[in-house]
Amino acid sequence: RTSPRSTRRLDRGPLSNSNSDMRSRFGATLGRSALWPLRLSLPAVRSPLRALRRPLSTAALDAYSNTVVSTVETVGPATVAIQVAAPGATVAPPGAPPGEGAPGGSQGSGVIITPDGYLLSNAHVVGDASEMSVTLTDGRVLRGTTVGRDVATDLALVRLQTPGSVPFATLGDSEALRVGQLVVAIGNPLGFASTVSAGVVSAKGRSLRAKDGRLIEDIVQTDVALNPGNSGGPLVDSASRVVGINTAIIQGAQNLSFSVPSATAQWVVSELLAHGHVRRSFLGLGCQLFPVSRLFQRAHLFDPPTAVQAVNVVPAGPAARAGVRQGDVLLAIDGNPLRSVDEIHRLLPTPGKRIRLRLVRPSDARNPNGEGRISTVELTTEARPHGT
Question: Would residue 237 show up in a list of annotated catalytic residues for this protein?
C-alpha cells in the first residue's frame, strides 16, 4: 500500500521539478563539469551516423531504379498491345490508329520472342480469332495471325506480318527464380500503353485452374500490380529475361498476381511450332476420387487419403488395351502415387512413352476399399485426339 508520504511525492508538481532535484543530487556526486561534456557530445555522435545513412539509402535506391529502368529499356520495345476484333468485325488495317476496326473486341498484351515476329500472349486474349491488330511501342500497327493456342496453359503463339526484324525479348529460366527476387511486369492495363510495375516473387509452384478444367502447374505468384489488359505481357527478371507470361489476378484482392512460367511457355511454343497444337497423352479413362480407409492404406502401402477409381474405360483406348477395367483403383504411375485426377495429367509423359501403372482390382467395384488384387500393367502413351 502506498504511504501518504509517497503519495505526496508522486503528486508533487510537474516532472521538471523532480528532474531538477535529480540533477542537483547527481551533480553533487559527479560534479557539475561532468554533465556538460556528456550533453554536448550527443549531437556530435548522431550527426556522422545521419551523414552515413543518406549516401547508403541513395545508393540502394539508385541500384533498384537502375535495375528496373534497364529492364524496361531492354524488354519494353518488345512488349506489344493486342487488339482482337469482335466477331463479325474487321481487324484494324496496318497504320490505322489504335482501336479502329475492332469495336467491342478484346484487348491485351504480348511479348515478341523472335526477331522475325513470333510473339507470346494469353489464349484468353487471342480467343478464337485467326487475325488481330498488334501495336508496337514505336507506333507501328502490324497484322498478327494465330499460329496456335493452348487453353490448358492459357498461352497463344502469334506471328506478326512484318517485312523486317522487330525488337524481341529473350525467354529466361523460370525454374531458377527465388522467392523474394525482383521482377518487373510490362503491359497495357486498361488501355494505358507500356505501363510498368515492379515487385517480388511471392511464391512458386502455385496451381491455377484453366478454362478447360485442367490445372496449370508451377504458376509464379508475385505482388506486382496487374490489371485487365496486362494479360499476355511479360514478367521480367533483373537480367532482362522473360521468366513468365502474366495471366491472372484475383478480383478484389491486392498484390496477388499470377504468371505462367517461361519453362512452360518454351515447351508450349515448341509444340505449337511443330504441330500447331500441344500434344498431350491420355489413358482413355474417366475417373473419380474416393476417400480410402486405413485398412486400404495398410494393405496396399498407400499413404494418400484419397485414391482414383476408373469409372469409365474408353474402348480400344491405351488403358483398355493394357487391361485396365472399370472399377480398378489407380495407385501410381512409374512409382509416383496418384492423389487426384490432376496428378494423372501431371505425371503422364509425352506421347509414345512407356509407363507402368500400378492398380488394385477390387472384388466388388462398388466397394473400392474392400479386398482386391494388386497388379502392375505397362502401356504406351498416345496423343489425345486434337480438340478433345
Answer: no
H or E stretch covering 43: helix 35-75
Q: Which of 150, 154, 237, 328 is catalytic?
A: 154
Q: Quick one: pLDDT band at residue 338, thresholds 50, 70, 90?
A: very high
- Does 231 participate in catalysis according to the annotation? yes
Measured CA distances, 369 to 137, 153, 319, 327, 362 (Å): 61, 35, 22, 11, 8
Catalytic residue among 106, 124, 240, 281: 124
- Active site residue: 121, 202, 231, 259, which one? 231
What pLDDT is stored for residue 44 in this prediction? 44
Q: What is the DSSP letter of 64?
A: H
Q: Is a pLDDT exceeding 60 seen at residue 291?
A: yes
Structure confidence at residue 160 (pLDDT): 97
List pLDDT tens digits, range 102-115: 455 679 999 999 99
Three-state SS at 224 = coil
Mean pLDDT for the stretch of residues 93-106: 52
197, 198, 223, 239 from 68: Cα distances, Å: 9, 8, 15, 10
Which long-range contacts does 300-304 make (Cβ < 8 Å, 24+ apart)?
300/331, 300/360, 300/374, 302/331, 302/337, 303/337, 304/337, 304/338, 304/339
For residue 40, what pLDDT is reported? Answer: 42
Let me know if 11 is a catalytic residue.
no
